[in-house]
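In response to a reviewer's request, we include the raw inputs and outputs for one of the modeled complexes. The two entities were modeled together in a single run.
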Amino acid sequence: MKYALLSTGALIASVAYGTMAVAQTDLTMWYHGAGNEVESNIINQIITDFNASQTDWKVSLQSFPQAAYNDSVTAGALAGNLPDILDVDGPNMPNWAWAGYMQPLQIDESIIADFLPGTKGVWDGKLYSIGLWDAAIALVTRQSYLDELGLRTPTLDQPWTKDEFMAALDAAKASGKFEYAFDPGMAWTGEWYPYAFSPFLQSFGGDIIDRSTYMTAEGALNGEAANAWGEWWQGLFTGGYAQVTQDPADRDGGFAAGKYAFSWNGNWAALGALKTFPDTLFLPAPDFGNGPKIGAASWQFGVSASSQHPDGASAFIQFALQDKYLAAFSNGIGLIPATPSAAAMTDNYKEGGPMAVFFELSAAQGMLRPVTPGYIVESKVFEKVAADIANGANVADTLDAAVDEIDADIAKNNGYGH
Amino acid sequence: MATSTKLTRSNSAGWAFALPGFGLMAVFIIIPFFFAIGLSFTNQRLVSPNPTEYTGLANYRQLLGMGVITLDAVKDDAGQIVRDETGAPTFPRVRDYTRNNPDYPQLQGMREWFSWGSDTSRTYVLARDVVFMTALMNTIIFVIVVAPVQGGLALLLALLINQRLRGINVYRAIYFMPVVVSIVVVSLLWRFIYDGNSGLLNNMLGAISFGAIKPVDWLGNPNTALGSIILMSIWQAVGFHMVIWLSGLQTISPTLYEAAAIEGSSKWQTFRYVTWPGLRNTAVLVLIVITMQAFALFAQIDVMTKGGPLDSTQTIVFQAIQRGYGKQDISGGSAISVILFVLVLTISLIQRYFTREKN
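The model returned the following structure tokens for the whole complex.
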């Protein structure tokens, strides 16, 4: 009893002391960018500015290496000690929201009205995460290649059709100047496959899953359009336009070494390409019949479900959405800023800037990967589909098997809450 | 009896010393082991708001389900077998029978694993999970090749370095070196060696054959990928088993060799009647250890091929981890682990039976 009284007294005293000395409530934050000094500096700057700008909240940061980040969040969630604020890779967000790791943001829609569509993480009709940047992919080539091969320069309004694209590959192959006409980036196994290659499928008119219900992949991944995509995709490799197994070094330096005429690559590699060849062009994705498509959504910020102070966490995220910070991230690590006004403040994405085309690509062609908690499994299934078909597997059988696996997974998860 | 009571009653210090070790083993090996068995009978997910449900043997049925179907060649109206350009008869598509076919509900969701047959009919063996079956077969092939070859090679090396020669320790160190290096690093290095364009192996083969041997994409070709990994795995761990053989060799009393020499036995006779019987227990140990390690093949696959190309290097453990962790299907991964456990246990018991002391 005496002990209890003592400790109660101590508790009251410490609470009183705490509120007197520190008026700000502590908020914790996890971020995936450990090891990148520039990125860390920017995020630390935002936190410092935020902590100084008001007296209610004090954010403290813990950074993780990207490779270990998702595992850390899963482990933290299972152990029940997630931070208040965390960041999440766009396509993973629905899974975390569904699993109960995250709660909707308390941010007014009007604030993010002019943000790129790929930066908004909406699940179940609610905004769970918002990105300060997006990423985009383009068909990288050189003006001199197009001139030599006598090809039309495609534009956003008039992208290449499938036939034009294949004619371009034929011309590049026939020229004999290149090891391979096309470099889709086969060396980058993992999420790159669904991120970079599923837009081809969507441009053909298929998809990884039927997005009207999110309950089955039947018809979407094994329908006529998907089979057409599969045959085309396999033809790239059997036809000698691209290589199935690629040396990672060739992926990073092959275009600069002149091995490939066209490289399917992201905005993060654009500055390097421009440095090697000043006449580098970033062409929009070809239109395979259902409109040109590229993948959208990158890392975004959200609030954990266990946070005691979601208002403070949302306040921080809203604070970080200022144009100057979007521009700082863009200038620092080459990402596409989320708003046109921020883009205007950057070196690369301002009008006439060397990478401005990516901002337009992202706005015009960006398509979210399937917004469903099951995407975590679906992306792995699609990765195997793309790899197996490239390696010569029977297209129809591979697609049917993938549909079976996705449907079985959805059933096993009682429909993933759709 | 007296020793066991002494062990439990008057050896408290010993038990206290053992406690941390036992505790860690219980937490990290014994409890997870029983967890895996329990979870394999449920639909537990790594991440899910859905409650865990007991599903009985569903995971095992999904993994091990098999079926057989025999199909007749497609005939045209005149009763002639329809043939393609190469003259091979055409058969109906198996997927038409295994997907949404109300006449064959027992085959629903299965895929062709392998088939055989004649001109007029083919028999298809179907599996509910072809990838797992492929992984199972690949792992068994790996074990069947690696266990005898690695064990034999290690014995040969051990015999070679079990001599009193100057500088023999240098060779011991060289043979043992790959064991000390992390398997991940070794796998990365061998990825460069096996590189399809300018890998060391291709360059060497090209050089010694004056360009007659064209570069082979060792890891990118379904026909060579598993073989390449087998070769590299044998090389990597042979030194470890060499050391075990060596320790076995050095327990054989020199007097036996002296006696054999006095009797005038040849080198082969000495090995056959002195060395080999003396290595009996070592041989059992090496065989069982290699078998268990080979069944656990994972790191090389994860670093070098990720199960590809076309599932040619899928293995049981790789599948267990890819499903349990990558696809968040803990129950499915657990079921694979349990199957692996039963498999290894069975084979170890069989090996133990055949290598037992016959009195």
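As requested, we also summarize the result in words. The mean pLDDT of chain B is 88. Chain B has 15 helices and three strands.
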